[in-house]
Amino acid sequence: MVDPFETIRHQIHSPSDAVRWACILEATAPKAGNVFPGRPFDDLQYIDFVKAAEVTATAFNDASLPITRRMLMAATATRQATATNVNLGIILLLGPLVAADESLKASEKEPNDWLAALETVLDGFDPTDGQNVYDAIAMASAGGLGNVDSMDVHQPHDQVDLRAAMISAQQRDRIALQYASGFRDFFEHVVPVVRNEIMGQGDLLTGINRAHVQLLAESVDTLIARKCGVDVANDVQSRSKLTCLDSVPEMAELDAYLRSPDHRLNPGTTADLIAAALYVLLRTPNHSFRD
């Protein structure tokens, strides 16, 4: 079986390289309801994602800095480069993944290795790390994540317990769920879907597009739920379940539905999870996954 990732893996020499590629691939794939080349929103263009990918990769490159400091640098640089919070969710997901990656040897890249390393990273976050992440969220003014229950992003750093805050938010935000679950949900339910669709199609962009709809069918997109309510998010999930991945007209119909006039149905959390999955797949040899 041809591994489509190999065409890119040999060009990746660092976690930063993989960050850049993962972000670009996710943004380039023609995913339903998302921005991609030739399909901008009124206030968001494909070039914004390209700029964000570059500045995020640069921010993550300095392994001498704490990972949460690099996450804050990435959020700040993205805001300066694009005047948007276009990749906050990606930054929140990639931070722990990059830190785990930096601790692993090339021979230690099976899913269980990733999970063990991630648990160490997440358990090691201190109040300063929590404040860095909260500052990144505040910088981006993310809807639904600006306040996490009783913990406000403007609290002094000595009061921030990042993982506790994410645990309290996990029911309404799937990115918070990854922090709460040690990324187990991600490795059990997201990475396999993205990998299997890409391998099955033998093409990165086609596989990403199909994985996007499959993930929408399997779980509610929590960004849609926060913006529009659970009933609307459930309707998106139901429509995705009814969409045939092999039918061009049905895929186009779902895309048109998700491109509501104000783009409030943009399934952004699902796209963020795909970018993170691409990072892992680019950094993990194919033989490490068991079919």
Structural commentary:
- The protein has a single domain (6-286), classed as Triphosphoribosyl-dephospho-CoA protein (Orthogonal Bundle), CATH 1.10.4200.
- Helices cover 64% and strands 1% of the residues.
- It is built from 16 helices and 2 strands.
- A two-stranded antiparallel ribbon has the order 1-2.
- Helix 2 (15-28) packs antiparallel against helix 3, helix 2 packs antiparallel against helix 5 (88-103) and helix 5 runs parallel beside helix 16.
- GO terms for molecular function: ATP binding; triphosphoribosyl-dephospho-CoA synthase activity.
N-to-C SSE series? HHHHHHHEEHHHHHHHHH
Widest β-sheet, arrangement of strands? 1-2
End-to-end Cα distance, whole Å, is 12 Å
The helix/strand class is mainly alpha
By CATH, the superfamily comes out as Triphosphoribosyl-dephospho-CoA protein
Global outline: globular
Under CATH, the topology is which?
Answer: Triphosphoribosyl-dephospho-CoA protein
Q: Strand-residue fraction?
A: under 5%
Q: What is the total tally of β strands? A: 2
Pfam families: CitG
Protein name: ATP:dephospho-CoA triphosphoribosyl transferase
Keywords: Transferase
Organism: Rubripirellula tenax
List keywords for this structure.
1% strand, 291 residues, mainly alpha, two-stranded antiparallel sheet, 16 helices, triphosphoribosyl-dephospho-CoA synthase activity, transferase, CitG, single chain, ATP:dephospho-CoA triphosphoribosyl transferase, Triphosphoribosyl-dephospho-CoA protein
